[in-house]
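Anyone else keep sequences and structure tokens together like this?

Example one:
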Amino acid sequence: HSTNPSGQNQHKDCHKSFLCCTANKPLIGCFSAPKGDHKVADLLREYHRWNISDRKLLSKLLQAEHGIKMSEATVAHRRRELGLFCSCLTATQLPEVTKCQLVLDQLADDPSGHRGLRVVKELIVNKTGVMLPHKYIRDQMMLQEPKGFMACQPTSKKLSQKPLV
């Protein structure tokens, strides 16, 4: 004899997500993802490649774009299980030589020096999947290309650009 024969409890989405995942039917509407769901893992990896690591934002994006209800804490647990860490933790785990080489590779790909800090950071994440802190990349760029930062100063002389036509 069960005191709850319908299976309804205070977790309103648990029963529905279990039925959808076991029936192998298309998921319609909002559902909470079970722990071993490969779709959620792929989405979290994709967001990591897009340099999105804020768990609040990830929770909102999963809800809005894919209809997946996940609390911020669950997002953080899943990212940890998948080995998707933020830039500060990645920076402490990587050797200094490796981090410096990642930045130098991106600077070598841009001989004209037009790529800014944000672009370099995004390219490192896209090509290697490694997130480095903004401050670390900025410091390395200042060491390697100080002229690029001097040209961006408000007091520096600006080059006027004229149309070629």
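And example two:
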Amino acid sequence: MPHFFSGDELGAIKSISYAQGDNPKEWKASTTILVPASTSGHSKSIQNLALHSSGPESLLSAVRADGSASLYNTEGASLKVVHEWKESKLKEGQRFVGLESTEKGIYTCTSNGALRLTKPGQDGGEPSSSTVTLPMRLCEWRLSKDENTFAYGGNEVELSLWDTERAFSQGKEAPPQSASAESKKRKRGDQLLPGEIWRAKNVPNDHLGLRQPVHNTALTYLQPSTSTSHQHLLVGTANGNIRRYDTRAARRPVADWKGVGKTGGISTVEKGFHEHELFVADHGCTLAALDLRNGRTIYSYKGLAGAVSSIAPAHSFLASAAQDRFVRLHSTFGPPAEAGQQQEHKGEVLDKLYMKVIPTVIVWDGKTEGSSAEADDGAEGEDDVWDAMQAAESESEDEAKTSRRKEKKSRTA
């Protein structure tokens, strides 16, 4: 059964587990408070969560509005603190825009361009960290699955793809001030920065010949790639557009789907587990599934009364955290076999869990239950056996009928 971790505006971290009721469409949620809410108010608001599993051990990372960060061990009914630190470069009015927990360490990125890799000390060793200076006014930062590349975008910051190893090696060689000064000069000449692989180009001017503003508010990787220079990326913009990029094909988007976000632009995007499936939320009450082949909405979820701030796909499920204080569990169905066909099944809200404090982020634990799959396989096996028995019975009945007919004919003859 699906299991998630959520964070809220007062710094609490909770475990949310779902179990199916007697009715297949009935789901019940059980919550456990792992980290209690802070008494210092919204300064401890959880801005992002990231989970990394290595064998039986699972580590949960959390970053907060005051710049503090924590790494927890999730074994047991409570969280055990492994390492804590604070981002000194996070200033007032800025926030964390990226967090990833990996085997190498914990990556954090702030809106003012401070990218840090923190390595907690192992076996009694001292923790260490290294930083990279990126452009300011960032809105989203993502790391690829293989950790070889990362991408970012922001307010007047075009989508950019970087080589992770080269970026951190350059960060060690050059001081932050000179790197930022050099970046401004190179951007004027449209040249790539040290460690930068590819940078998008602004879309053409509008019908009045005016330059269109750049404001990328959300992004995600669409599929893994063996080549660092060839990536498929997708961004959401402040004017509600969804743009798909192929770094090998062009610097401008290969697809630009307009008006997907109805209110306030795109807030978050996540690639689903089904083929050609994408989930999109805006700053209104829209949460929808899109077909990546044509950009069409295949279905939208009903009953949302607040903007969705975070979503977490989990195979055939989707969890969402919204400003109306609800954490919801949704069902998901993949796009039709052929683009443009009618969608037979549409996702629904399976459960609504009211939270006393507004939830800010939700993540899936990444674990799948083997028992349900085995049960389904067993049921399918039983169905095959019954089908075979019925087929054998029907064949025996047919044979009996033919033999009776032959007997009648022989008697009349």
